[in-house]
Amino acid sequence: xxxxxxxxxxxxxxxxxxxxxxxxxxxxxxxxxxxxxxxxxxxxxxxxxxxxxxxxxxxxxxxxxxxxxxxxxxxxxxxxxxxxxxxxxxxxxxxxxxxxxxxxxxxxxxxxxxxxxxxxxxxxxxxxxxxxxxxxxxxxxxxxxxxxxxxxxxxxxxxxxxxxxxxxxx
Length: 170
Known about the structure:
170 residues, alpha+beta, Alpha-Beta Plaits, six-stranded antiparallel sheet, 27% helix, elongated, molybdenum cofactor biosynthesis
């Protein structure tokens, strides 16, 4: 079992010193989803929503959120991301939109939190843009799908459906 790295020997919150860690290529992929009414989904799909193109706005929100993760999550390190991508999969049989984020950099610490923040911000933006039509929308699950780089190397969620992945060019 691992130990919590953001606690010092006295159990106090602590920002981890990553100076002695090796710089490696690091990436992470995360997902979230928003389930909604048929009416809200139809407006989302055809872009006729009163507030505009919700998917375009959500993509930008996800990218911006990844870049600001250290400002939102207290003990995260500010990172020089080299790539942030947010893609969408429309699931009409479920009135659901799935968002998948991908973050990458060469650095001393991972980008899992940035990928999760991007996916969550995209989901929250979809909710915000569609809430007038359907305030009962549900967000989730939001979860890490894959990460690579660093001392621990690659990790992949066992129940992640790689065939259903939006991003295919990693």
